[in-house]
Amino acid sequence: MTPPSVANPPRPYIVFGKPDIRQPEIDEVLDSLRSGWLGTGPKVERFERAIAQYLGVEQAVAANSCTAALHLALLALGIGPGDEVIVPTLTFCATANVVVHVGARPVLVDVDRASQCLTADAVEAAITPRTKAVIPVHFAGWPANLPSLRSLANRHGLKIIQDAAHCLEGLIDGVPPSRYGDVTCLSFYVTKNVVTGEGGMAVTNDRTVADRMRVLGLDGIDADAWKRFSSAGYRHYSCVVPGFKYNMMDLQAALGIHQLARVDANLRLREAQWARYQDALQCLPLVLPASPSAAVVHARHLYTVRVRPDAPVRRDTLMSDLHKRGVGAGVHYVPLHEHPYYQQLLQVQNGAYPVASAIGRETCSLPLGPGLRDDEQTRVIAAVHEVLRGVASVS
């Protein structure tokens, strides 16, 4: 094979979910390295305060992932063996895994075709005497209908633990979704709208629940590590419960502090990229993302298209051909009821979740976010056209 010439080098691969890391984050990480404080310390506390202020809540508890935050929330709210927790089947497996980890049983429900979130009607139909909580997932950044879910939860005495991994910036009638839930869990994974590499956060207005999560998340000890070794002097600790090693590091928080400072500006950028995709792809055999009402602010975390049955290729072929053209893409998601573990655990019947099943077969997420340059989005659009129409040149 003839190598590419120096004059025409191969174009860089467009990574799906590429983070946008700038000098303030780098300087903050270097400051942590120079200080010697790498683990849980003052920058984690600073990041927690910033998130709490941004969302208008009283308590924020940092963790090493959204999965850990969800696990802690279930435990702190007393969910355990014999309980049932309602979960949308269209989500990442971690949303249901944590229910299993506390000894409870996940009960799957189908999702709305437009928002791809669970609905109050689906939740109400799944409630049994054992139901103790519901975990709405704000898919791709579109907040679930929380006013109706909150009303339903109040009537049935249920807890709402939100999986808001996609939806830090979302609003419903000007109000962050976190104010509707008992606990709301966020993700700062490398592809998310605020990035710390790995990391998560649980937010709540219940101080007792927050304190319980703090103890459970740091090996069950009654004093934060950074406070035990701070300049105030060493203090002894006691293990009051067999907890978990779920704490966030200052090295991670150093990134998050400055990522959060740009979150609203980055939302405007993603909105512009979203609009460009909507305009450029509307002529293709794709189902493009729906838009919520004007009362809802969509966090624009994922731009997901669905490959229609009349398209010349199926979803997997589209993704493979995009990869060959140097464009990364994702699948969000293979529904939970199609994974072997949950098929066996829940004895899933064929045809039980028709909407999520169709989405799972057809969905493809295209690159989006501040790490995506204009010329790269042009390449993404051109590549999608090439695969679906054989048209190589688009604006």
Structure overview:
It is a single chain. The protein has 395 residues and is an alpha/beta fold. It folds into 2 domains: 23-261, Type I PLP-dependent aspartate aminotransferase-like (Major domain) (Aspartate Aminotransferase, domain 2, 3-Layer(aba) Sandwich), CATH 3.40.640; 263-389, Aspartate Aminotransferase, domain 1, CATH 3.90.1150.10. 38% of the residues lie in helices and 12% in strands. The chain has helices at 23-35, 42-55, 66-76, 94-101, 120-126, 146-156, 207-217, 225-228, 250-261, 263-281, 315-324, 340-346, 354-362, 374-389; strands spanning 59-63, 84-88, 105-109, 131-134, 159-163, 171-172, 183-187, 200-204, 286-287, 296-297, 303-307, 363-366. It has a 7-stranded mixed beta sheet, with helices on both faces.
